Amino acid sequence: MIRDLKGFKDTVRVEDISEEEGMHLVFEDMPGLLSDIDEYRVRSPIVGEVFLCRVNRDVHLRGEVRASIRLICHRCLESYIQKIHTTFSYILVPSLPGIRKIALDTEDMETSTYDGVEIQLGKIFREQILLQIPMRHLCKEDCKGICPGCGANLNREECRCQKESLDSQFSPLKRLLA
Ligand SMILES: [Zn+2]
Ligand SMILES: [Zn+2]
After folding, report:
1. Model pLDDT for residues 32-83, shown as the tens digit of each residue
2. Which ligand is closest in space to the CA of residue 160?
3. How many angstroms separate the alpha carbon of residue 170 from the centre of ligand 1?
4. pLDDT digits (tens, 9 = 90+) for 142-173
5. What is the 34 CA–ligand 1 centroid distance (Å)?
6. For residue 158, how far is its CA from the centre of ligand 2 (angstroms)?
7. pLDDT value at position 82?
8. Distance between Cα 80 and ligand 2 center (Å)
9. Which ligand has its closest atom nearest to the C-alpha of 158?
10. Comparing C-alpha atoms, which of 60, 42, 41 is closest to residue 50?
11. Given this model, what pLDDT does residue 92 score?
């Protein structure tokens, strides 16, 4: 059974995943995924896709997500768009109370746990988006920032500090007081 959903489902019940064919979900938008983070303004639908398959009680998940988020540059304080596009894969292992989990070591897949009943898709998509946003928000690598003296945005304007100090040096008031 392959399902193609337009609306976003935050969780998927493992028993709904077909053992033969797995499950394929496409989301044209995942509203609210980042709405609790005031700093991030989502500028376009968050588009995502996942393939899920059951291997005994484990769930193998492969996915992709795209989004555009408006951020404020930490250096020049102008807003800019951070584009996000990432693919990811997980092996989800049930962690049931009282049952010891055997850690899986795989090279290219991240191993994580689920409660044995539901896969928290929303949480996984959110985590993947957040991983793509650098700690330091920069509109561009070489953003010149703001001059602490005159407040000029040095990406667009010349610093006025030098000029202002020269002007004040030769201002009539200065001369009178000198
Ligand atoms: Zn900047
Ligand atoms: Zn300046």
Report:
1. 888 888 888 888 899 999 999 999 889 999 999 999 999 999 999 999 999 9
2. 2
3. 34
4. 999 999 999 999 999 999 997 656 565 566 65
5. 23
6. 8
7. 94
8. 23
9. 2
10. 60
11. 92
From the CA atom positions of the chain, what is the Rg in Å?
Answer: 26
| Residue whose entry in the numeric block shows the structure tokens 């033969």 | 20
Q: Are strands 118-120 and 11-13 parallel, antiparallel or unpaired?
A: antiparallel
Structure tokens at 55: 């291997």
Please count the residues of the chain. Answer: 178
Query: Can you read off the two tokens belonging to residue 59?
Result: 């769930």
Domain range list for the chain: 11-143, 144-178
Task: Tell me how far the alpha carbon of residue 166 lies from the centroid of ligand 2, in angstroms.
Answer: 13
Residue 145 Cα, ligand 2 centroid: separation in angstroms?
Answer: 11
pTM of the model: 0.77
Tell me, what amino acid is at 146? I
DSSP 8-state assignment for residue 106: -
Select from 22, 40, 42, 17 the least CA-distant residue to 31: 42
Please tell me the number of the ligand nearest to residue 147's CA: 2
